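sry for the spam today, last one i promise. struct tokens for design, 209 residues
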């Protein structure tokens, strides 16, 4: 960590994180009436997630505040997009609601359990975890690709409502669907693994009484 007396709120990655929040908020405000600007703001906010991670590593300015800010921005942005999609596609609303609940629950429980275990980052998955989760969190390029594809899939659904899905948007949505499905599977595996680890903490604490 850079400088013990440094102002964590002003770490460069965290400042980038604040910009992400503003872009995500602009996207939400634009979603009902301005699809292209909304999608642009949403996509730029999502892309900056990789930028702040690189800045944290290069400048040695990783922080728990930054990790939590990233997590909350990602989850809240996707929540808002999927809520909007539920309004645009009422028949798909139950599936979208289940999807966003799984996304939020799995990430929250995973990060909370990692904190209780004393881990420095929720992206450091132990060797005893599911091998698919290890692969996902152990390779930054794969993690970025799957997350970007998942965000892109839902963005395509959003834009298709306004511009139709018979052309490039439809083809792109189908191309991204397998990776979006993989992200949902990873969320389910992450939720199960975090619950198991949390139960192990409970057992350990009960034995130490």
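last one done:
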């Amino acid at each position: 960590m850079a400088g013990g007396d440094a102002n964590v709120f002003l770490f460069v990655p965290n400042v980038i994180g604040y910009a992400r929040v503003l872009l995500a908020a602009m996207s939400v405000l634009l979603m009902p009436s301005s699809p292209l600007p909304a999608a642009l703001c949403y996509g730029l906010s999502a892309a900056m997630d990789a930028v702040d991670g690189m800045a944290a590593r290069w400048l040695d300015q990783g922080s728990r505040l930054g990790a939590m800010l990233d997590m909350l921005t990602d989850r809240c942005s996707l929540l808002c997009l999927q809520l909007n999609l539920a309004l645009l596609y009422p028949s798909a609303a139950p599936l979208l609601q289940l999807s966003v609940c799984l996304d939020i629950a799995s990430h929250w429980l995973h990060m909370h359990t990692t904190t209780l275990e004393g881990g420095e980052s929720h992206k450091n998955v132990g060797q005893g975890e599911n091998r698919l989760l290890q692969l996902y969190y152990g390779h930054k390029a794969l993690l970025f690709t799957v997350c970007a594809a998942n965000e892109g899939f839902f963005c395509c659904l959003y834009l298709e409502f306004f511009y139709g899905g018979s052309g490039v948007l439809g083809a792109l949505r189908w191309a991204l669907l397998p990776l979006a499905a993989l992200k949902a599977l990873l969320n389910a595996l992450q939720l199960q693994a975090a619950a198991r680890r949390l139960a192990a903490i409970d057992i350990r604490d009960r034995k130490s009484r």
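The chain has one domain: 8-207. ok im logging off now
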